[in-house]
Design brief:
Layout lengths: L1 H35 L1 E2 L2 E2 L5 H15 L1 H14 L4 H13 L3 H20 L11 H40 L4 H14 L4 H15 L4 H23 L6 H15 L7 H6 L1 H21 L3 E2 L12 E2 L1 H34 L1
Antiparallel strand pairs: 1-2, 3-4
Helix pairs in contact: 1-2, 1-3, 1-10, 3-4, 3-5, 4-5, 4-6, 5-6, 6-8, 7-8, 7-9, 7-12, 8-9, 9-10, 9-12, 9-13, 12-13
């Protein structure tokens, strides 16, 4: 069992190691363009064609994140024949808005399906074309059907029901709503759950309720800021690659890009996701209680000029960041100690 979990972790780490440069490049370019194009109603590129160009390049790099993550997870499992179905599954995970969790599932499924197909006995005349033609086509078609027909419809239905549930809660307990919004923002870091909470907050702005977006805005930036801080606090716990990802995560967190924490969550979801969810939930609750209002559909320190009760907003972000960093460091430390004891 332990050996299987270690192999699974290695497959995830392989995908993450290839995806990190795409996340860092795309996230930082988007962050820079957003920062210089920020207005009270959010980033506006209508009078900044050069910034729009930078944004588009960053978005292209970001769009490649899911295919690369899934593709190299599948490659780690099944070798070169896993690349086509892995990349295809990762791309479709983005199209059906399944987020990084969907990309991970696509990569794992693609890899294991290819491994099964490789074990099918075939004629010696077919053997040479199996890895370059038959396996990619069969596995790719299978993964495509799963991502579009199996995952796509439930995700769309979930988003619809979640939005209705949030609307019904908006007239009830503010603290409970903030807890839920903060957790949703962090749990899949840009995926369907995150987007449901974000678009709900953005919709409330048009109705004159800025506190919903205020809670979301504080929660949006704490996952990357918290995980980035964790890599600075106890550097020996993290690999050089993770430390570099931490610096990129901090840069993205400052501009409100939650996806900056994805490399950490993809590599170690069991420990990282609870850490970022806790931090974002705390940040959202503090912002809600303090009456923080965000007039722009965006988050992070970059929207500070259009935020009501800025002092409380800063406190919410700082506390949420510290909670994420502390919990992430503690869980990482316990994991490291446990691994050493098992080996020794």
């Amino acid at each position: 069992m332990l050996a299987s979990l270690q192999k699974l972790r290695q497959h995830l780490l392989t995908g993450v190691s290839y995806a990190i440069p795409f996340i860092a490049c795309g996230g930082i370019l988007i962050a820079l363009s957003d920062a210089f194009a920020m207005t009270p109603s959010g980033p506006n590129f209508s009078h900044s064609p050069h910034l729009k160009l930078v944004f588009d390049i960053g978005s292209a790099s970001f769009a490649l994140m899911f295919p690369v993550l899934a593709g190299y997870i599948a490659y780690s499992i099944a070798g070169k024949p896993g690349l086509v179905p892995g990349f295809l599954g990762g791309y479709l995970a983005g199209e059906v808005r399944a987020g990084f969790i969907g990309a991970i599932l696509a990569g794992l499924l693609a890899g294991y399906v290819v491994e099964l197909l490789k074990k099918i006995p075939v004629s010696k005349y077919l053997r040479p074309i199996m890895p370059i033609l038959v396996i990619p086509i069969v596995a790719g078609a299978f993964i495509g059907v799963v991502m579009i027909k199996v995952l796509g419809a439930p995700i769309a239905l979930f988003m619809e029901h979640a939005n209705r549930a949030l609307q019904s809660m908006s007239t009830g307990n503010d603290v409970l709503l903030a807890l839920l919004l903060g957790a949703m923002i962090a749990v899949d870091m840009g995926g369907p759950v995150n987007k449901t909470a974000f678009f709900f907050g953005a919709a409330m702005i048009s109705e004159g309720n800025y506190r919903i977006m205020g809670a979301c805005a504080a929660a949006i930036c704490t996952p990357p800021l918290g995980m980035g801080l964790a890599t600075l606090v106890r550097r020996k716990l993290w690999s050089v690659e993770e430390q570099e990802a931490g610096l990129a995560a901090i840069a993205m967190g400052l501009i409100g890009i939650t996806e900056g924490a994805i490399p950490f969550a993809a590599a170690d979801p069991i420990r990282v996701i609870p850490s970022v969810v806790a931090g974002s939930a705390v940040a959202a609750v503090i912002a809600m209680i303090g009456g923080v209002g965000d007039h722009a559909p965006h988050g992070g320190p970059v929207v500070l000029p259009v935020v009501d009760h800025r002092g409380v907003y800063i406190v919410a972000i700082l506390v949420g960041t510290l909670v994420t960093a502390a919990l992430g460091t503690l869980l990482k430390l316990r994991s490291t100690v446990a691994n050493k004891e098992e080996r020794g």
